[in-house]
Amino acid sequence: MAEVELTWAGAVATIALTRATKRNAVTIAMQHALLAALGQVAGNAKARALVVTGQGGDFCVGGDRAIIARLGDDTAFRAETAGLHNRLFRRLFALDIPLIAAVEGAALGFGAELAAACDVVLMGETARLGDPHVRFGLPPAPVVLLVWPQLASRLAVAELVMTGRDVPATEAVALGLASRMVAVGTALAEAQALAASIAALPAHGVTQARRAMRLEIADLDGFYLEAP
What we know:
There is one protein chain. By secondary structure, the protein is α/β, with parallel strands linked by helices. Helix content is about 45%, strand content about 20%. The chain has helices at about 30-40, 65-70, 75-95, 110-115, 140-150, 155-165, 170-175, 185-200, 205-215, and strands at about 5-10, 10-15, 50-55, 100-105, 105-110, 120-125, 130, 165-170, 180. A hairpin with a 2-residue loop joins strand 1 (about 5-10) and strand 2 (about 10-15). Helix 1 (about 30-40) packs parallel to helix 3, helix 4 (about 110-115) crosses helix 5 and helix 5 packs antiparallel against helix 6 (about 155-165). The radius of gyration is 16 Å and the shape is globular.
């Protein structure tokens, strides 16, 4: 797959962004690859948990600059990317297994959306989380707008999305945008260990717990903010 790697350890899947030289800035090809990887996870009846991470010291710094440059003026391209974006996150939200984000370095824009779509977010001590879309003259990321107001206060989220400010792990945890902070360089190992412990539990109970936690956000119209 194009700069996206899917690996398995028993019933635990790990999807890693592997464009480390570009700090895992996401291209169109990578979004298609993510969609395909999620399809493989969804199609595996033995899957019990999914870890999402990025290689090379950063989770994901957002969309590739070439994409961002075209979003402002190219209406057809904006509609195409919005459709792909929504298909990808619909598939992510539709998974019936727990999703755990292992965040090191920067999780910005699209990276913040990936983390927000997860049930558990573990952040290394030096990791940062934010949505800088407004700095490029673009509206905030739709999944950020969907999820963050349910995790933190509306006032806190409003400041973040209107300024594009990113926050350190300590603040992300305090706001409720991340589950907990872990030692630098251990987020992936901690996430995989947590995923393995969840995978060892009876599947039905875990599935029902995930569905219950996701009911409140499953049908929010805000998710389709960027839809053509």
